[in-house]
Amino acid sequence: MKLHLSTSLWLLAYLLCCLLDSALLRTGNSFGPVSLAGGVALAALLQHGWRILPWLALLMCLPGLLLALPLAQVLLLATAKAACCAFSFFLLAYPAPLTEFKTRHALCLLWSAAGVSCAVYAWLLSDLLPLAGGDQSWQSGFTLLWLGQALGILIVVPGFLALQDEIRELRANWLIEATTLVSIAACGAMLLLSDRYHDSLQLTYLCFPLLAWSSLRLGQVGNSLIALVLLLILGSPSVAAGLPGEQMLQQLVLLGMALQMGILIAVIRRESEQALADARIAKQVFNHASEGIMLISSQHKVLAVNPAFSRITGYSEADALGRPSRIFDTRPGNPNHSQRHLLEQLQQTGHWEGEMQDKRKDGELYPAWLSISAVHDLEGRLNRYVGIFSDYTSRKQAEQRAHYLARHDSLTDLLNRNGFHEELAKALIRASTKRRGLALLFIDLDRFKSINDTLGHDVGDQLLRIVAQRLRMHLKQDDVVARLGGDEFTIVLENIHQVQQVSQVAERLLQAMAESYLIDGQALFVTGSIGISMYPNDGSIASQLMRNADLAMYRAKDLGKNAYQFYAHEMNSLNTQQFSVQAALRFALERNQLQLVYQPQMNLATGQLSGMECLLRWQHPEMGWISPAEFIPIAEETGLIVPIGHWVLLQACRTAQQWRESGLLVPKVAVNLSVRQFKPGVLLEQVSSVLAETGFPAYLLELEVTESLIMHRINEVVDIMNALKAMGVTLAIDDFGTGYSSLSQLKHLPLDILKIDRSFITGIPQNDDDLAIAQSIVAMAKKLSLSVVAEGVETEAQMLALRAAGCDTLQGFYYAKPLPAAEIAAMMPKV
Ligand code: C2E
Ligand code: CA
Ligand code: CA
C-alpha cells in the first residue's frame, strides 16, 4: 500500500481530531459531545475513495487505546467507526459522484449520512460494546453517540465540500473572509463568556441568527467554521464545567439543528442565486440581442418576442403575442408556404437553419436568416420553439453587389467577360430552341492606344465610358452589350432573320462611335472596327462565334478601319499577319507585283528541253520576295486564288503564245492548279476563255493537279478532268507519292503525266527505300501508260539513278532554277 502525501495529511488531520475529540471528553466519560474525527474520516474517503479506508481503520483503533479499553473493545469500536464511515460514503458518493454540492447532496448528507449511518453506528456501539464487557455508559449512550457522530459529519463534510468548490474564490477573498470570521468568532466567544453564569440557553438561541447570517454571508465554509468555533468554546471543559449535563445536551441538539438549517439555507441560496443570475443574463441577452428572438408554443402561437423582433418586423409585442407564427404557415399566399422541408427537418432533428422570406408589417418582403430549435421538457415532450432570425437584406445586398461586380465592368457598367459569356450561352440556347438567328459583334476601337498613351488613362477611361453609353443608346434594351477589357466591346443581337438587320445596326454603331468626343473641353475623334459572326452559319458554340467575330474584326481593320466585316469562311485559321499578307495580296495583282518564272523540264532520252513549269513569284515592295509556299495557301483560303490562278493561266499562255509568234519552238507549258479553281463553272470557263483569248493551242498546255486534291474529291474531279481532256489539254498529277492514292483509282482518271514528289528524290541514291519507291512508281506509271517526271533533281547521281529507273523527264536545280521568261526563251530552238 502506497502512502501519498495528501493521504498522509488526511490521516494526520484525523489523528489531530481524535485528540481534539478526546480533549472535549469530560473526565470519566467514554464518548464526547462531538466526533470531529468521524467527519474527517468521511471527508477523506470522499477525497481519496476506498483506498484510504484501511489506513483510517487502523487509526480508528486510537480512541480505544487512548481510553485504555481492552483489545476486543478497541477492535469493535474501530470496526463500528469504519463501517459507519464506509456506509456514509457509499450512500453519499454512490450513485452520484460529488462534483458539485447541491440541495440533493445536502439532504442526502443529512438523512443518509448523519441520520441513517450514524444511527447504525450508535446502535452498534451501544448494543455491542457492553456485550464485549464495555462500560455501562455505552448502553445508554445511543443518542449521544448518534448526535456526536452526526454533528462531526455535518460540521466537517459540508465545510470540506464547499472548500473544494470555492477554493478559488476563497483564495481571492481570503483576507475579507478571514477577518470576518475572526471577528465573528471573537464576538461569539465574548458573548458566551459574558453570559456564562446567567441564562446559557439564551446563548444557544444566539447561535441561530449567527449561523443563518454566516450561511448567507459566507456560504458553507464560514458556516462550518463558525459552528466549529462555537462548539469548541461550548465544549471546552472550562465552559462545560459550568453547565449541567442535561443543558449541555439540549444545547448541542439545538446547535445541530441550527447547523442543518444553515447548510440548507446556504445551498438553496446559492442555487437560487445562480438561477436568478442565469435568468437575468438570459433576459439581457433576449432584450439586447440584435437578432429577433421569439418563443413559440408547441401549438405554434407566439409566446414572447424581443425588441429586435419589433425593430426588424415592425410588429409590436402586442401585435405578435398569442398570434400563430408565420414560420409554420404553409398555406399558399404566405411567402414561406414552400418551406415544408423546414417543418420536416424540425420534426426529425429538432433544428432548422436557413434563409426564408418574411413580410414586414408595412408589407415589404425581406430575406431573413432563421435558426429555429425545438425545446423539450425533462420528459422529452415538445415544450416550445425558439426562433432566432436576422434581417438578411444588407448581407443579401452585399452579396448582390458582389455578384453584380463579378458580372459587370466597373468602369462602364456594361457586362464584363464573365457576364458576357453567361449571357451569350443563354442567348445561344434561346436561339437554338427557337431556331432563330443570332449575331455576335466584336468591336475594337481604332487607335485607342494612342489616345491612352498621349492623353492619359483618365481621358481613355472617360472615352470608354462614352463609347459604352453610345453603344447602349443605339441598341435595344435587351441586347447584350459587354466590355471584355481594354477597348474591346461585344454585342449580341438576337432574333436575326436577315443579314441586313445586322449591317444596319453595325452602321449605326460605327456612326455613333465616329462622332466627336468632348472630353475635358477637348474634341477627340475615334472610330471603331466591327467584326460580325452569325449563328448558326459561322459557328454553333460561343467560342467559335467569338473567334470568328474576332477574325472578322481584324479583317475590318485591315480593310482600312472604321468598317464592319462579316466573318467569311476563308478567314478561318488565319492570323492577323496572314490578314495583312492577304490584304497586300489583293493589291498585288492590280499593282503588277506578281510575275511568272519558268523551270525547264529535260527529256532524258534526247537531253533536250521537253517542257517547263510555270511558277508564281511575288515581289512585295516592302516585304520583299514572298514564297508561293507562303502566300498560295492564303490565296486559297481567302478565295483570291481564283483571280490569281486566272492571271497565271493567262500570263503563261500569253507569253508562250508570244514566243511561238516570235518563231520559237515552244514545248509544253505546265501550269499549277489550286483546289479552289477546281470548280466546274470556274475552271472550264477559265481555261477555254484563256485559250481562246491568247490563241495558245490546248495540246501545249499542261495542267498540274496535286494528288491529294484529286484523291479527296475524286468524284467531282473526274468530270472536270474529262472535260479538260476533251478540250485537248494535258493533265499531270503533281506531288505524287504523298497522297496514298491507289492504282485502281488512278486508272479511272484521264491522266497523261505523273510527277514524283521531290521528297522521294532527295534521298536518292543513298536511301534504298526512296530509290525503291521511285523505281516502283516509274514501273507503275509505265503500266498505266503515263510518262513520269521526277521533280527536284539536284545532283548528277540523282539524275543517273532516275535514268536507270526508267524516268522520262527530269526537273530540278541540277538543270536549272525557275528562270525569267527571257532566259527560258533562250533555251528554246527556233522553228
Ligand atoms: P510544286 O508545284 O511542287 O513546285 C515545285 C517547287 O519545287 C517549286 O517551288 C520549285 O522552285 C521547287 N524546285 C524545283 N526544283 C527544285 C530542286 O531541285 N530543289 C528544290 N529544293 N526545290 C526545287 P516554288 O516555286 O517555291 O513553289 C512552291 C509551290 O507553290 C509549288 O510546288 C506549287 O504547289 C505552288 N505554286 C507555285 N506556283 C503556283 C501557281 O501558279 N499556281 C498554284 N496553284 N500553285 C503554285
Ligand atoms: Ca507543280
Ligand atoms: Ca510538285
UniProtKB/TrEMBL annotation:
Keyword match Transmembrane: yes
Signal peptide: none
Alphabetized UniProt keyword annotations: Cell membrane, Membrane, Transmembrane, Transmembrane helix
A UniProt-annotated Pfam family: PAS_9
Residues covered by the GGDEF domain: 436-569
Membrane topology: Multi-pass membrane protein
Location of this chain's protein in the cell: Cell membrane
GO MF term set: cyclic-guanylate-specific phosphodiesterase activity
Main location: membrane
A Gene Ontology cellular-component term: plasma membrane
Residue ranges occupied by any PAS domain in the UniProt entry: 278-323
Gene3D superfamilies from the UniProt entry: 3.30.70.270, EAL domain (3.20.20.450), PAS domain (3.30.450.20)
Positions of transmembrane segments: 30-46, 53-69, 75-94, 106-124, 144-163, 175-194, 225-243, 249-268
PROSITE patterns: EAL, GGDEF, PAC, PAS
Domain PAC: 352-404
Matching CDD domains: EAL (cd01948), GGDEF (cd01949), PAS (cd00130)
GO biological process, one term: cellular response to nitric oxide
Top-level lineage group: Bacteria
Reactions catalysed according to its record: 3',3'-c-di-GMP + H2O = 5'-phosphoguanylyl(3'->5')guanosine + H(+)
Annotated EAL domain residues: 578-831
Protein name: EAL domain-containing protein
Organism whose genome encodes this protein: Chitinibacter mangrovi
Lineage per the UniProt record: Bacteria, Pseudomonadati, Pseudomonadota, Betaproteobacteria, Neisseriales
